[in-house]
């Protein structure tokens, strides 16, 4: 069998390789899953780069999201049989042909989803659904802004918000991403590489957003927080800049709130039934289009470095999949 592997942290396209391995037989409460498709997400790339060294033992088999079929069942497993299609979540390892996973962390994707859709039906759809539910009540709740708006999750947030009668303002880091935010779900777009972007945002939102979804952090996330109207919230859920938010935000704007969202925390704390219900809802939204991702390219495992480079391309045209 073949799998992607990282033996030393570093820039993802250089640090990841491919090796032969013999899958571990399933132990008590475990299954083996023959992976069919796996996503290449920013969270995979930062883990390969060594952003979470304490919880990323080496060698590291990347891939937090993917779909496959059960191919062997260990002792004590109930409710799963060979051939069942599952999302083996809660641990990395989707970038390999066979993943040995705990059965309690295997969830069922919506049956109507293709493997490509199912492989992208967990991390971004669930995060978008939960954040919109928690932080953007509806049309009366004030204007909303979304940064890294050309990302897969940016598009999902906009479409889910539009369903609630709110059209957010898109923030993109440059003109290359503008085509991705030209749809009717957006109220307008602002490029953050232009001087005066916060004034433009204030104009488009009539005095600043009430809620801003921040996947960037660093300087851009900080300026977005400062641009909120009084009583507003920054929902901080990503670090695409590689830098944290400035530590003095609370002092500079005591009248705004910073709320952190990490899907991982929610999934590990929620009862199993609730995770499956949320995945069912996310899967339906993928089928309806609101939480769907555009796939720009699929690569066999052997071309994992190319897959990583395609995912990192600036102004990319959608998600990249690995087909192990
Ligand atoms: N907290 C959570 O639980 C959670 C869950 C899901 C996703 N996320 C986060 O959400 C973010 C987006 O994920 P995704 O899968 O939707 O991404 P994606 O579709 O793979 O696209 C990456 C996007 O990031 C943008 N980008 C990269 N570096 C940037 C920078 N320094 N400043 C501004 N934009 C930048 C790119 O912009 P261009 O178009 O200009 O290239 C592109 O639109 C990631 O940070 C991810 O970790 C967090």
From TrEMBL:
<dbReference type="Pfam" id="PF13602">
    <property type="entry name" value="ADH_zinc_N_2"/>
</dbReference>
<feature type="domain" description="Enoyl reductase (ER)">
    <location>
        <begin position="12"/>
        <end position="322"/>
    </location>
</feature>
<dbReference type="InterPro" id="IPR013154">
    <property type="entry name" value="ADH-like_N"/>
</dbReference>
<protein>
    <submittedName>
        <fullName>Zinc-dependent alcohol dehydrogenase family protein</fullName>
    </submittedName>
</protein>
<keyword id="KW-0521">NADP</keyword>
<dbReference type="Pfam" id="PF08240">
    <property type="entry name" value="ADH_N"/>
</dbReference>
<dbReference type="InterPro" id="IPR036291">
    <property type="entry name" value="NAD(P)-bd_dom_sf"/>
</dbReference>
<dbReference type="InterPro" id="IPR011032">
    <property type="entry name" value="GroES-like_sf"/>
</dbReference>
<dbReference type="InterPro" id="IPR020843">
    <property type="entry name" value="ER"/>
</dbReference>
<keyword id="KW-0560">Oxidoreductase</keyword>
């Amino acid at each position: 069998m073949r799998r992607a592997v990282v033996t030393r942290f570093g820039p993802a396209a250089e640090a990841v390789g491919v090796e032969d391995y013999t899958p571990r037989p399933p132990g008590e409460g475990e299954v083996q899953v023959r992976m069919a498709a796996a996503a290449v997400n920013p969270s995979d790339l930062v883990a390969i780069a060594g952003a979470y060294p304490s919880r990323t033992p080496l060698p590291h088999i990347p891939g937090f999201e993917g779909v496959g079929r059960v191919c062997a069942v260990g002792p004590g497993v109930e409710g799963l049989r060979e051939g069942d299609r599952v999302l083996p979540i809660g641990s990395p390892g989707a970038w390999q042909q066979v993943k040995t996973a705990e059965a309690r962390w295997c969830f069922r994707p919506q049956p109507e989803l293709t493997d490509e859709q199912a492989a992208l039906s967990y991390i971004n759809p669930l995060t978008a659904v939960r954040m919109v539910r928690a932080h953007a009540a509806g049309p009366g709740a004030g204007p909303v802004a979304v940064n890294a708006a050309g990302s897969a999750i940016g598009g999902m947030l906009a479409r889910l918000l539009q369903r609630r009668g709110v059209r957010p303002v898109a923030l993109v880091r440059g003109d290359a991403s503008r085509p991705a935010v030209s749809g009717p779900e957006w109220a307008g777009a602002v490029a953050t590489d232009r001087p005066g972007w916060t004034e433009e945002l204030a104009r488009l939102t009539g005095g600043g957003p009430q809620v801003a979804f921040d996947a960037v952090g660093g300087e851009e996330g900080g300026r977005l927080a400062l641009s909120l109207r009084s009583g507003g919230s920054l929902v901080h859920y990503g670090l695409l800049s590689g830098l944290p938010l400035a530590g003095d935000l609370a002092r500079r704007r005591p009248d705004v709130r910073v709320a952190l969202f990490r899907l991982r925390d929610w999934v590990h704390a929620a009862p199993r039934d609730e995770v499956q219900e949320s995945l069912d809802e996310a899967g339906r939204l993928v089928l309806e289009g609101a939480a769907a991702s555009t796939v720009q390219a699929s690569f066999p495992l052997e071309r994992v470095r190319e897959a990583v480079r395609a995912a990192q391309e600036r102004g990319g045209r959608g998600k990249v999949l690995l087909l192990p």
